[in-house]
Amino acid sequence: MSEPVDVVLIGGGIMSATLGTLLSELQPDWKIVVYERLHDVALESSNAWNNAGTGHAALCELNYMPEGKDGSVDPAKAISINEQFQQSRQFWSTLIDEGVLDAPSTFINSAPHMTFVQGEKDVAYLKKRYEALKQEPLFAGIEYSEDSRVINTWAPLLMQKRRKGEPFAATRVPAGTDVDFGALTHQLFDNLQTRGVQLVTNREVRSIRRRKDGTWRLNWRNTIGRTPGHTDAKFVFVGAGGWALKLLQSSRIPEISGYGVFPIGGQFLKTTNPAVVAQHKAKVYSQASVGAPPMSVPHLDTRVVDGEASLLFGPFATFSPKFLKNGSLFDIVSQVRWGNLGPMLKVAIDNPSLITYLVGELLKNHAKKVDSLRTFMPTAKDEDWELIQAGQRAQVMKKDPEKGGILQFGTEVVTGSDGSIAGLLGASPGASTAVSIMLGLLKTCFPDQIEGWQPRLRELIPSYGETLNTRPEVAEESLAETAETLALTA
C-alpha cells in the first residue's frame, strides 16, 4: 500500500496555486499533488475573461462600504479588504524579486480605480464615503469631483454628450490595478512543477472519504478514458469553485451541513476598437441595481490580457443551474440535503428582488445591454461591442440563527474540526485576496507548524501578522515599494 501524500489540492485556480506556493515555500519536503478536472489550469473563475480582473482593494467598490440606515458610512470593511490586497501585492513582489514570477506586466498593470454615480442621493453618499476614506493611509491619494471638466480628464468616455443639469460625482484613486489572474495562476503552477509538485490535469475527483487512520481517500477518474483510481492524503484543500460544495458534502464533515450555493453567471460587453480603448484607462464602478447581487455592480473596465488592451462593461447576470461553466445541469438539484433545504428555501422567500433582477437581465438583448452601457458612456455604439460569456459564481447560502437562512456575498473557508480538510466557497473579492485567505487557512489547519513558519512568512509578506493602515509611515513605504517592484505607475 502506498504512503499517503502530504497535501492534495483540488482545482487548478488561483486559490490552489497560492496555497501550493505558500506550502512549497514553508515545507519544501512535503509531497503536494494538484488535481484539475479540465485540460489546463485557470480555465474557470481564474481565467482572465471569466472575471473583471479588478485588484479588489475597495478603492472603487461601493458594496464594501454601504450606507447605514442612519446615513452613516463605516470604512472598516473597505480598510480590511484593502489590507488583504496589500498582502497579495507584497507576496507577488517577493516572488518577482526571487524569480518565481515573470515580468510584472505579464499579469498586473496600472488602472486607476474610479467610482461614478448619478442623482442627488448617490452624489451625497459618495461625498460622505470620500470624506470618510481620505484620511485613511491605505486610501491616500483618493480624489473627489462633481466637475465635468475634471472628470473628463480622468475618463473622457463618461462625459462625452452627457446631458446638462444631471447631478453626478466621481472619485478616483490613481494607484488601482488590473490583474490577469489567469496568467498569474499559470506562472505559479509552472514554478510549483519545477519544485516537484505534481500537477495532474484531466482528473476529476468524484468523492472524498475519511479513512480509519484519519487520512482522506480521494476517489477520482480521468476525464479521458474514464479510468478510475484513488489517492490517500493527510490534508485536502478543495479550491474547485462551485464544485467545492459537492466535494465537501461527500466528505461528510458536519461543518458543511446547512450550506448551499446559488449559481449566477455573467456576460460582459467587450470592445477592442482602438479609437474607443485609447480614450479610457480606468476601472469605473457604480451602484448596483435594486435587487442585484454585489458581484453585478456595473463597471466599465480597462483590461490588459496577453499584452492587448480592451474595455469590458458589465456584468449582465445570466442563469444556469451549473456550478461551473463546465459543470452539470443537475448541480443545483444534486446539492440538496435535509440540512440545507430549509436555509435555501428561506433564501428564496427572502430575496424576491434578486429573482426579479435575474429575470430582467435574462430578457435584455444586445441592444438593451448597450443601452445600459450608455448610462456610463453616452456615445456607445452597438457595432463596437460584442458579448462574451464570463464565469459562473456560486454565492453562499447558509443557516442563520435569526433569519433561518441567508444569501452571503463573499468568500468563506469551511474547515473540518481537526483541520485536515478545508474548502473555499463563494466569490468576490476572491482572487484578489487569495493570499490573505490562504494565510488564514494555514493558521487554522496547521496550528502546530504556524509558529515555525512565521519567519519565512514575514520574508514573503512583510506585513504578515500586522496591519498597515494603523501605521501611516509603514503603509506609505509598503505601497511605494510594491508599486516599484510591480512596475505600477499612479
TrEMBL record:
Pathway annotation from the record: Carbohydrate metabolism; tricarboxylic acid cycle; oxaloacetate from (S)-malate (quinone route): step 1/1
Keyword Heme: no
Group of enzyme by EC: oxidoreductase
Keywords: FAD, Flavoprotein, Oxidoreductase, Tricarboxylic acid cycle
InterPro entries the UniProt entry points to: FAD/NAD-bd_sf, MQO
Keyword Oxidoreductase: yes
Transmembrane intervals: none
EC number: 1.1.5.4
Cofactor needs: FAD
Enzymatic reactions: (S)-malate + a quinone = a quinol + oxaloacetate
Assigned protein family: Belongs to the MQO family.
NCBIfam families reported in the protein's UniProt record: mal_quin_oxido (TIGR01320), PRK05257.1-1 (NF003603), PRK05257.1-4 (NF003605), PRK05257.2-1 (NF003606), PRK05257.2-5 (NF003609), PRK05257.3-1 (NF003610), PRK05257.3-2 (NF003611), PRK13339.1 (NF009875)
HAMAP family according to UniProt: MQO
Name of the protein described by the UniProt record: Probable malate:quinone oxidoreductase
Organism field: Microbacterium aoyamense
Record gene name: mqo
